[in-house]
Amino acid sequence: MLVVAIESCDGAGKSTATDRVAHMVRGHAWHHDAVRNRDALDKARAYREQRRALRGWRGAVIVADRWWLSSLVLSHVAQSTVDTLASSVALDGEHDRVVRYAAAIRREVLDEIDEEQAEGLRVVTVYLRASLDTLRSRTSPARRGGDRWRALPATLAAYEALAPTWCQHVVDAEQRAECVAADVALIVQRERRQ
């Protein structure tokens, strides 16, 4: 089974692209169920369980709005934030706690990757690259000012740092939504032939 995971920050157009691409390639669009009021490690575990349920869909192409890279990004953001604070403020044991926490999220992701490979699941990750200004302009007014809004610069920096290692493809998300979907659909068609 082929999973094409569309990854990026909020506002890049992942959900729209997921639905359009799945329709274009006659695949299945898949979105995670929201997990609220839990910390990042709990969310990573809950999302991993949701993804496990898909492994029985043999022969299908699944276009997913996020996959495990988003959990890896959370780990990277936590680690980077605490490292930056540690250089300017005495954090006592807080630094070590956050470092262990970020490492636990990374272990969760790496274990999931190992499971997928053992089961023959092929995950191809497409990163939708957009500028911070574009991401902010596409965020609904109701979501501006919250924690995710404030974390957007750090989240974008994490995606930019991790994308070269973890993403097989990069698509320009600055273009119109139908162009983004067409670019991703071409990637899916090429990946299907491999």
Please sum up the structure shown:
The protein has a five-stranded parallel beta sheet, with helices on both faces. The protein is globular, with a radius of gyration of 17 Å. The mean pLDDT is 89.
Fold and architecture overview:
It is a single chain. The chain is built from 8 helices and 5 strands, in the order E-H-E-H-E-H-H-E-H-H-H-E-H. It has helices spanning 14-25, 40-52, 69-88, 94-118, 132-137, 147-150, 152-166, 177-193; strands at residues 2-7, 28-31, 61-65, 122-129, 169-172. The protein has a 5-stranded parallel beta sheet, sandwiched between helices. Strand 2 (28-31), helix 2 and strand 3 (61-65) form a beta-alpha-beta unit. The chain is globular, with a radius of gyration of 17 Å. The termini are close together. The mean pLDDT is 89.
Total strand count, please? 5
Q: What's the end-to-end separation, in Å?
A: 12 Å
Percent helix range: 55-70%
Mean pLDDT: 89
Shape: globular
Which residues sit in consecutive blocks of at least 5 with pLDDT less than 50?
A: none
**Main β-sheet, spatial strand arrangement:** 2-3-1-4-5
Q: What is the makeup of the main sheet?
A: 5 strands, parallel
Strand content: 5-15%
Rg over CA atoms: 17 Å
Class by alpha and beta content: alpha/beta
List the helices and strands in order.
EHEHEHHEHHHEH
User: How many DSSP H or I helices?
Assistant: 8
